Amino acid sequence: MADAAEVDLHRVGRSLLTSVSSIIAFPKDLKRNYKMLTEGAEELKALKYDILERRGHKKSPATREWMDKAEMISKEVNELEAKYKDEMEHPWRLVHFWEHSYLSKVMAKKHNQVKSLLEAGYDNRKVWMEELPEPVREMHAPKIKDNSSLHKVVEDVKIGIWGTLGTGKTTVMKNLNNHQDIAKMFDIVIWVTVSKEWSIKKLQDAIMQRLKMNMEGTVSIEENSQRISEELRGRKCLILLDEVYDSIDLHKVMGIDDNQESKVVLASRIRDICKDMEADELINVKPLSDHEAFDMFKEKLGQSIYSRQIERVAEQVVRECGGLPHLISNVAMIFRNKGEDISLWIDGLKHLQRWEDIEGMDHVIEFLSFKACYLYCALFPGEYDIDVDYLLECWKAEGFIPGTVAFRDARHQGHVILDDLINLSLLERSGKGKCVKMNRILRKMALQISLQSDGSKFLAKPCEGLQDFPDSKEWEDASRISLMNNQLCTLPKSLRCCNLSTLLLQRNNGLITIPLSFFDSMYNLRVLDLHGTDIRSLPPSISNSIDLRGLYLNSCTSFTGLPDTIRELKKLELLDIRGTKIQFRRIESLIRLKCLRIPLSSFSTGIKLGSISAFVSLEEFCVDDEVSVEEHYKDLKDVTKEVITLKKLTYLQFCFPSVDFLSLFVLNSPAWKNSSFSFQFSVGYRDSTYSHFLESSDYRSLNCLKLVNGEGTDSVIAKVLTVTDAFGLINHKGVSTLSDFGIQNMKNMLVCSVEGCNEISTIICGDGVVNSVLENLDILYIKNVPKLRSIWQGPVPERSLAQLTTLTLTKCPELKKIFSDGMIQQLSKLQHLRVEECHQIEEIIDSENQVFEVNALPRLKTLVLIDLPKLRSIWVDSLEWPSLQRIQIGMCYMLTRLPFNNTNATRLSHIEGQQSWWEALVWEDDAIKQRLQSLCILN
Fold first, then answer.
1. CB atoms within 10 A of CB 320
2. 333-362 pLDDT, tens per residue?
3. Where do the NB-ARC domain residues begin and end (predicted)?
4. What is the pLDDT of residues 694-732, one digit of tens each?
5. Apex CA 821: angle with CA 815 and CA 825, to 5°?
6. Which domain holds residue 327?
7. CA angle (172, 177, 178) in 5-degree steps
8. Which of 91, 188, 408, 855 has a Cα at 20 to 30 A from 522?
9. Which of 113-117, 213-217, 785-789, 926-930 has the lowest mean pLDDT?
């Protein structure tokens, strides 16, 4: 670009030389000389700012002298420009021929001065730049999707990027380093790869070398820190720290607290390192989805996949990569040379399936104090949603959680271990409820480790479509076996499995019988899971499993009875028989149980006095009300009286026939008086229209109260509400608002569901209320409330609904207005809004009489609008929509405009709707339509 500019300057110079021979030519060339002068001045201005930005506030005397000259000439050019414009604006004035000539001549001379200064600037710029480090050192990195709001990443002081090895943390960091927006924001970007053998001195040396500081002589850490801080003073600096293995005190390294303009982004495999370094925001870089992984594989392959047969093998190849971008890239390079030969692809897949190691991770696992807990997760398929409560129960039964007897204590300690595994990126949270999952690659490595461990070999073949059980030798060598989610119909008749401690056979729904002698040698069995099978009974040999702690028979719909020998299982702590046909009398001998889950129908034949109270060790009792038969509820009256006597209860899931029985429990149960007691209570008969919303939410394990087909209010409801996290009001009569239950009783509420309540007209009545209301509410779910006219009536106190992230409104035919005056200002954390079948709504955000900033709803991510026939507007003006990612619109035919322009909603990536609706939209600018068209999924 500079060379081209010099060519233009030489051409201009030659043109001037040929024209000065005659003063008569100047009037004719006035416009041309003006154009050349102003263009040269603009180029000089750009060069000046380029040097200024690259050098920051530090300028040598030579640089300062050149800058002063450039500034002076710029002023002189401005004066000549003003004279020229004055002449051009008054063409009627009698201007002498020689005045025109003189102005043209002065411009030509001034242009020569500009040209000379430009040449000096270009000649010396390289020298000036070498005195200081370049602002950014470009790094080779695979391109990732450009994020137009990438600059937001560095708005906070410190950002922590964490995730398992190979997920692309370094790639994200390199793209951040290379991004043009970042180069504009900072005077200098400093990249440091922190080795395992790092030290403060090594880190300081790397930073000083990047800053081209004099490093001669031995200087103390404190002096180095002060020198670095002085060097960066007044300059905007971005520090990128990759592969951080340990917490780093950046103030000790570089005095970062004294440089407010300095920002830090660090990448680590360990989440707690980011926390220890006080990162303002944590970003978890997760493996790619199957779809994203396959797209990346095809891109890296660099050629077409020749046939559907090869494509199927390619899909398996990609699955073996576990969504790790680094591994996908390397594997694609290997498979690039296999061409169209299907046999080569299959052979490559087999080699990949035998690969088990991720460099560096085996060392981490080897020194885990809770290694057994991690390896246990490999019994489940890769990327499989493992229920956390179930996993912790298995860990407890196996003895992995030492020093605990009580279930509650074991769960607490188990969550600490689980958090450590997530912190080390060995497990990750699942998006589905309270679940975790293990990456496919990490699972393969865990299985390999188990095979190399004496007395801890796994036979893990879940979800492999097995119809026949594995060879007996494989059974007998294993300490833990998982054949879950297969198609087994039979099991071995005779085995020697003396070392077996866990056997997972769940969801083999073709499994009907278990051989009589199957459990003969399973003396050390601790966990047996048969849930979701079609077995009818257990063989008497189950009594040989004298060490059994956890037995899962739930959802065995054909299961009718247990053998009498079941009483021999003296160590059995947990029994789950929900969804079976077992009667309570069949388990009355198991009085040592600590956790019992049983269906409501088990009490259909009644219970005798003292049968439940005999379970003196019971800590967790769950009576599942899946069966919606009203006649079973009369049996609960006797059961309630029995449950009251259980003194060691720490958790109770129970359905009380009426509020009176709830009151009886609250007033008389010693467990209720324990501050650590938790519950899931349902009061009243539940019919088949119940939507199970609370059970499906992530809060199902918290204190939950559901009032079903009830009426009015009661003091005991108010008392229970004060310690309730999730509240469901279903088909309730006699109240017109939740406020009738006492606003002051809802401070702890996190989830609220209102369904089928025909008399409710508003959710909250704020009249006369001074303090904040529902300040901790996270989810509000409203469905089929025919008389609902508003969510909030009256004033909205500050901080009310301040934590609300999800709002769902369905089938509210009288609702015309969603956000009342003052309400929207409180919803700074709202992320998901869904409005469906509310036929009177005309505007989602009613702007009339409301005054708020354009940055309202700053965290809204998803907006779903379905079947709103009168909806005309989302909002009359445009918000910034800084977090909006996805919108779905269906059957909203009056909605003819979208509230988006070319600058807002920069993170929007998905618009779903109907083709006819999209084609009928009206646009202020075609450029907006073109921008959004690529985001559409239309049907």
1. 18
2. 778 777 777 877 887 777 776 665 555 455
3. 158-302
4. 766 555 568 999 999 999 999 999 999 999 999 999 999
5. 115
6. 290-353
7. 100
8. 408
9. 213-217
Of 712, 704, 705, which is closest to residue 732 (Cα–Cα)?
712
CA 187 vs CA 36, 94, 233, 606, 823: distances in Å:
32, 53, 11, 79, 42
Domain presence at residue 400 = no
Element (H, E) at 71: helix 61-89
Report whether 551 contacts 572 (CB < 8 A).
yes
- What pLDDT, on a 0 to 100 scale, did the predictor assign at position 653? 93
pTM of the predicted model, to two decimals?
A: 0.71
| Cβ count within 10 A of residue 463 | 15
**Contact status, residue 778 vs residue 751, Cβ threshold 8 Å:** yes
Q: Kindly state whether residues 458 and 578 are assigned to the same domain.
A: yes
Same domain, 599 and 499: no
- Full 3-state SS string of 689-743: CCCCHHHHCCCCCCCEEEEECCECCCHHHHHHHCCCCEEEEECCECCCCHHHHCH
Q: How far apart are the first and last CA of the chain?
A: 48
pLDDT value for 114: 86
Q: Do residues 573 and 386 lie in contact, with contact meaning Cβ atoms separated by under 8 Å?
A: no
**How distant is the alpha carbon of residue 715 from its chain centre?**
40
Task: Please indicate, yes or no, whether residues 252 and 305 belong to a single structural domain of this protein.
Answer: no
Average pLDDT rounded to a whole number, residues 508-522: 94
The answer to whether residue 410 scores a pLDDT higher than 60 is yes
Instruction: Provide the residue type at 448 as one letter.
Output: Q
Total number of domains constituting the chain:
5
| Dihedral pair phi/psi, residue 470, rounded to 5° | -60, 170
Which alpha helices (H) appear in 471-557, and where do they start and end?
472-477
**Structural domain includes residue 161:** yes
Half-sphere exposure in the Cβ direction for 147 (13 Å, CA): 15
Show the tokens assigned to 206.
């790397």
Which own/partner pairs from 918-922 qualify as long-range (CB within 8 Å, at least 24 positions apart)?
A: 920/893, 920/896, 921/896, 921/897, 922/896, 922/897
Q: What is the DSSP string of 813-843?
A: TT---SSPTTTGGG-TT--EEEEES-TT--B
Domain containing 295 — which CATH number? 1.10.8
Last residue of a domain, one of 632, 662, 686: 686
Q: Is the pLDDT of residue 22 over 50?
A: no
Tokens linked to 590 = 């198991």
CB 346 within 8 A of CB 317: no
Strand order in the sheet with 435-437: 386-387, 435-437, 428-429
Shared domain check, 155 and 273: yes
CATH code for the domain of 498:
3.80.10.10
How many other CB atoms are there within 10 angstroms of residue 751's CB atom?
A: 23
* Strands 237-242 and 428-429, bridge-based pairing: unpaired
Mean per-residue pLDDT for 590-600?
93
The tokens describing 342, both together, are 């299907």
> Among the three residues 648, 665, 686, which one is the final residue of a domain in this structure?
686
3-state secondary structure 398-459: HCCCCCCCCHHHHHHHHHHHHHHHHHCCCCEECCCCCEEECCHHHHHHHHHHHHCCCCCCEE
**Is the residue at 655 inside a domain?**
yes
CB 651 within 8 A of CB 675: no
Number of H helices, E strands in the chain: 26, 30
- Whether residues 577 and 616 share a domain: the answer is no
**Is residue 747 in a domain?**
no
Both 295 and 209 in one domain: the answer is no
Beta-sheet strands, E only, within 488-640: 502-504, 527-529, 550-552, 574-576, 595-599, 620-624
Are 173 and 277 in a shared domain? yes
Band of pLDDT at residue 153, cut at 50, 70 and 90: very low
Give 356-383 pLDDT, tens digit per residue: 555 545 555 555 668 889 899 999 998 8
Do both 544 and 463 map to the same domain? yes
